[in-house]
Amino acid sequence: xxxxxxxxxxxxxxxxLKRLQDSSExxxxxxxxxxxxxxxxxxxxxxxxxxARNEPIIATSQGYLYMHASRPSGAERTIACSHDxxxxxxxxxxxxxxxxxxxxVRIEHPVYGDLTASIMVSNRYEVKQFMEKIRATNASxxxxxxxxxxxxxxxxxxxxxxxxxxxALRKADLLIDLE
Length: 179
Description:
The chain is an alpha+beta fold and 179 residues long. It is 40% helix and 25% strand. The strands form 2 sheets. Strands 5-4-6-3-7 form a 5-stranded antiparallel β-sheet, covered by helices on one side. Strands 1-2 form a two-stranded antiparallel sheet. The protein is elongated, with a radius of gyration of 18 Å. The model has no long low-confidence stretch (mean pLDDT 89).
Protein backbone atom coordinates (compact mmCIF):
# COMPACT_ATOMS: atom_id res chain seq x y z
CA UNK A 1 0.00 0.00 0.00
CA UNK A 2 1.44 3.37 -1.04
CA UNK A 3 1.71 6.12 1.60
CA UNK A 4 -0.12 9.35 0.66
CA UNK A 5 2.16 12.11 -0.59
CA UNK A 6 2.58 15.25 1.47
CA UNK A 7 1.87 18.53 -0.24
CA UNK A 8 4.84 20.76 0.56
CA UNK A 9 5.29 24.44 1.47
CA UNK A 10 4.05 27.04 -0.99
CA UNK A 11 2.10 24.46 -3.00
CA UNK A 12 0.23 23.41 0.17
CA UNK A 13 -0.52 27.01 1.17
CA UNK A 14 -1.81 27.76 -2.34
CA UNK A 15 -4.00 24.65 -2.14
CA UNK A 16 -5.34 25.65 1.32
CA LEU A 17 -6.07 29.16 0.12
CA LYS A 18 -7.95 27.90 -2.95
CA ARG A 19 -9.98 25.43 -0.85
CA LEU A 20 -10.96 28.20 1.59
CA GLN A 21 -11.80 30.65 -1.21
CA ASP A 22 -13.98 28.05 -2.95
CA SER A 23 -15.87 27.03 0.20
CA SER A 24 -18.86 28.85 1.63
CA GLU A 25 -18.53 26.77 4.82
CA UNK A 26 -15.69 26.74 7.36
CA UNK A 27 -13.07 24.00 6.95
CA UNK A 28 -11.41 22.56 10.04
CA UNK A 29 -7.66 22.47 10.46
CA UNK A 30 -7.93 18.69 10.95
CA UNK A 31 -9.68 18.31 7.58
CA UNK A 32 -7.04 20.42 5.85
CA UNK A 33 -4.29 18.41 7.58
CA UNK A 34 -5.83 15.12 6.45
CA UNK A 35 -6.21 16.28 2.84
CA UNK A 36 -2.62 17.57 2.63
CA UNK A 37 -1.14 14.72 4.73
CA UNK A 38 0.49 16.99 7.32
CA UNK A 39 -0.22 17.68 11.00
CA UNK A 40 -2.87 20.12 12.17
CA UNK A 41 -0.05 22.20 13.70
CA UNK A 42 1.51 22.59 10.23
CA UNK A 43 -1.88 23.87 9.00
CA UNK A 44 -2.01 26.38 11.89
CA UNK A 45 1.39 27.67 10.75
CA UNK A 46 0.24 27.81 7.13
CA UNK A 47 -2.85 29.82 8.10
CA UNK A 48 -0.64 32.21 10.09
CA UNK A 49 1.59 32.72 7.03
CA UNK A 50 -1.44 33.29 4.79
CA UNK A 51 -2.83 35.85 7.25
CA ALA A 52 0.58 37.56 7.28
CA ARG A 53 0.13 37.95 3.50
CA ASN A 54 -3.13 39.80 4.28
CA GLU A 55 -5.40 36.97 3.20
CA PRO A 56 -8.78 37.56 4.94
CA ILE A 57 -8.94 34.21 6.72
CA ILE A 58 -10.64 33.96 10.09
CA ALA A 59 -10.66 31.13 12.57
CA THR A 60 -14.14 30.30 13.83
CA SER A 61 -15.30 27.62 16.23
CA GLN A 62 -16.34 25.60 13.14
CA GLY A 63 -13.04 25.98 11.29
CA TYR A 64 -11.28 28.41 8.95
CA LEU A 65 -13.27 30.72 6.71
CA TYR A 66 -12.20 32.99 3.87
CA MET A 67 -13.96 36.35 4.07
CA HIS A 68 -14.81 37.42 0.53
CA ALA A 69 -15.00 41.19 0.15
CA SER A 70 -17.63 40.82 -2.56
CA ARG A 71 -20.16 39.05 -0.33
CA PRO A 72 -23.13 41.28 0.43
CA SER A 73 -23.18 41.99 4.12
CA GLY A 74 -26.68 43.45 4.56
CA ALA A 75 -26.96 45.35 7.81
CA GLU A 76 -24.31 45.31 10.51
CA ARG A 77 -23.89 46.93 13.91
CA THR A 78 -22.17 46.64 17.25
CA ILE A 79 -24.18 45.93 20.38
CA ALA A 80 -23.16 46.01 24.04
CA CYS A 81 -24.25 43.19 26.32
CA SER A 82 -23.79 42.26 29.94
CA HIS A 83 -24.54 38.95 31.62
CA ASP A 84 -23.09 36.03 33.55
CA UNK A 85 -21.42 33.21 31.60
CA UNK A 86 -24.48 31.00 32.17
CA UNK A 87 -26.51 33.32 29.92
CA UNK A 88 -24.18 33.08 26.90
CA UNK A 89 -26.12 30.33 25.14
CA UNK A 90 -29.42 32.14 25.72
CA UNK A 91 -27.95 35.34 24.27
CA UNK A 92 -26.60 33.61 21.15
CA UNK A 93 -29.84 31.70 20.54
CA UNK A 94 -31.91 34.88 20.87
CA UNK A 95 -29.74 36.50 18.22
CA UNK A 96 -29.63 33.66 15.70
CA UNK A 97 -33.37 33.02 16.10
CA UNK A 98 -33.87 36.53 14.71
CA UNK A 99 -31.80 35.77 11.60
CA UNK A 100 -28.69 37.43 12.99
CA UNK A 101 -25.10 36.28 12.56
CA UNK A 102 -22.92 36.89 15.61
CA UNK A 103 -19.56 37.67 14.06
CA UNK A 104 -17.41 38.25 17.12
CA VAL A 105 -17.11 39.16 20.77
CA ARG A 106 -14.98 42.10 21.90
CA ILE A 107 -13.91 43.40 25.29
CA GLU A 108 -11.78 46.27 26.49
CA HIS A 109 -9.08 44.79 28.71
CA PRO A 110 -7.31 47.15 31.15
CA VAL A 111 -3.85 45.88 30.12
CA TYR A 112 -4.19 44.54 26.55
CA GLY A 113 -6.74 47.02 25.23
CA ASP A 114 -9.35 45.74 22.76
CA LEU A 115 -9.48 41.94 22.54
CA THR A 116 -11.63 40.38 19.82
CA ALA A 117 -12.49 36.75 19.16
CA SER A 118 -14.36 35.42 16.15
CA ILE A 119 -17.62 33.55 16.86
CA MET A 120 -19.39 33.38 13.47
CA VAL A 121 -22.63 31.64 14.48
CA SER A 122 -25.81 32.03 12.42
CA ASN A 123 -28.10 29.23 13.60
CA ARG A 124 -28.87 27.01 16.60
CA TYR A 125 -26.68 24.18 15.34
CA GLU A 126 -23.63 26.48 15.17
CA VAL A 127 -24.45 27.87 18.63
CA LYS A 128 -24.63 24.28 19.94
CA GLN A 129 -21.24 23.48 18.36
CA PHE A 130 -19.72 26.65 19.82
CA MET A 131 -21.05 25.90 23.30
CA GLU A 132 -19.88 22.27 23.13
CA LYS A 133 -16.39 23.43 22.20
CA ILE A 134 -16.35 25.89 25.12
CA ARG A 135 -17.41 23.12 27.51
CA ALA A 136 -15.10 20.46 26.07
CA THR A 137 -12.05 22.71 26.34
CA ASN A 138 -13.11 24.32 29.63
CA ALA A 139 -12.36 27.65 27.95
CA SER A 140 -13.24 30.94 29.60
CA UNK A 141 -15.39 33.57 27.96
CA UNK A 142 -13.70 36.89 27.18
CA UNK A 143 -16.55 38.60 29.04
CA UNK A 144 -15.38 36.94 32.28
CA UNK A 145 -12.43 39.38 32.20
CA UNK A 146 -14.81 42.36 32.27
CA UNK A 147 -17.52 41.25 34.72
CA UNK A 148 -19.79 40.19 31.86
CA UNK A 149 -19.61 43.38 29.78
CA UNK A 150 -18.82 42.75 26.11
CA UNK A 151 -19.56 43.85 22.56
CA UNK A 152 -20.73 41.83 19.58
CA UNK A 153 -20.56 42.68 15.90
CA UNK A 154 -23.81 41.35 14.48
CA UNK A 155 -25.12 41.24 10.94
CA UNK A 156 -28.39 40.35 9.25
CA UNK A 157 -30.05 40.77 5.87
CA UNK A 158 -32.06 43.77 7.15
CA UNK A 159 -31.91 46.51 9.78
CA UNK A 160 -35.31 45.29 11.03
CA UNK A 161 -33.84 41.89 11.92
CA UNK A 162 -31.14 43.64 13.95
CA UNK A 163 -33.74 45.89 15.61
CA UNK A 164 -35.92 42.89 16.50
CA UNK A 165 -32.93 41.04 17.94
CA UNK A 166 -32.05 44.04 20.11
CA UNK A 167 -35.63 44.19 21.42
CA ALA A 168 -35.42 40.49 22.36
CA LEU A 169 -32.09 41.01 24.14
CA ARG A 170 -33.48 44.02 25.99
CA LYS A 171 -36.52 41.99 27.17
CA ALA A 172 -34.16 39.26 28.40
CA ASP A 173 -32.12 41.91 30.25
CA LEU A 174 -28.95 41.06 28.31
CA LEU A 175 -28.49 44.31 26.37
CA ILE A 176 -26.81 47.48 27.59
CA ASP A 177 -28.51 50.54 26.12
CA LEU A 178 -25.87 52.86 24.70
CA GLU A 179 -28.16 55.89 24.63
